[in-house]
Design brief:
It is a single chain. Helix content is 48%, strand content 14%. It is of the alpha/beta class and 267 residues long. The chain has one domain: NAD(P)-binding Rossmann-like Domain (Rossmann fold), CATH 3.40.50.720. Strands 3-2-1-4-5-6-7 form a seven-stranded parallel β-sheet, with helices on both faces. Helix 2 (40-52) links the parallel strand 2 (32-37) and strand 3 (57-61). Helix 1 crosses helix 8. The radius of gyration is 17 Å and the shape is globular.
């Protein structure tokens, strides 16, 4: 029940971080994988790794904020593999770090466009495929910043709250059609994103930021991309057949013990 042989997994933001880990994880459990990313080099590399390991993967370059690109990656997946059984709607950006009163308007728009419109467009164009199939599982990548405050990141926080809202809305609409929609809410994960945020906070000594934040996590460390990928695969598997409209926190215990998440404690 935790295998994907004969199934197709579509992953946006699959060129690195959590997306790459999810792509490799689905492939290792037998899925055919379509990797989507706007970074052609990174996305193609992910698909290449899967093929080197004996799996079946393709890559499609796309900007998730453009409806035509989203329709194109859906079509490419169907042309290559014939169905979409699992969709990890994962692409997202962190934006910049600044108080709400000083946050750059253009950056706010960019974060909301990628993180909210990109997720919406993925749902908009993948859900009809799954509804026709009468089966499918979608996992949107939200964040603990979608549940609690993260001072200094108003755009990111707003966008991830919106992802959880989209998840619940879509799940309720399609629950009786054989399609499930859930979200994962990672805490700080050891990927490019968290290290970029460390550098924004302290360009001269980003390591000190990471050390301080990890000391405030009950597990004492950042999570790994593989740990989130495992959760994504669980939610797409038959083991999660009674789970829809849910958001799963994987943050090392941070939100359970600390209230508001301080700036940069994001995926």
């Amino acid at each position: 029940m935790f295998e994907f042989k004969g199934k197709v997994a579509l992953i946006t933001g699959g060129g690195n971080g959590i997306g790459r880990a999810a792509a490799l994880g689905f492939a290792s459990r037998g899925a055919q994988v379509m990797v989507v990313d706007r970074d052609a080099s990174a996305g193609d590399a992910t698909a290449g790794i899967i093929r080197q390991q004996g799996g079946d993967a393709r890559f499609t370059e796309a900007d998730v904020t453009k409806s035509a690109d989203v329709q194109a990656y859906v079509k490419a997946t169907l042309d290559a593999f014939g169905s979409i059984d699992c969709f990890h709607n994962n692409a997202g950006i962190e934006g910049s770090v600044a108080p709400t009163a000083e946050y750059d308007e253009e950056m706010f728009d960019r974060v909301m466009t990628v993180n909210v419109k990109g997720v919406f467009l993925g749902l908009r164009h993948v859900l009809p495929v799954m509804l026709r199939q009468k089966r499918g599982a979608i996992v949107n990548t939200a964040s603990v910043a979608g549940l609690v405050a993260s001072p200094g990141m108003p755009a990111y926080v707003a966008s991830k709250h919106a992802v959880i809202g989209l998840t619940k809305t879509a799940a309720g609409e399609v629950a009786r059609s054989g399609v499930r929609v859930n979200a994962v809410c990672p805490g700080p994960i050891d990927t490019r994103m968290i290290h970029a945020l460390e550098s924004m906070l302290n360009p001269t000594d980003p390591t000190s930021v990471g050390t301080r934040y990890q000391s405030n996590i009950p597990l004492g460390r950042y999570g790994t991309a593989d740990e989130i990928a495992n959760l994504v695969q669980f939610l797409c598997s038959d083991l999660a057949s009674n789970i829809t409209g849910a958001h799963y926190v994987a943050d090392g215990g941070r939100t359970a013990t600390g209230g508001a998440v301080t700036a940069n404690l994001v995926r």
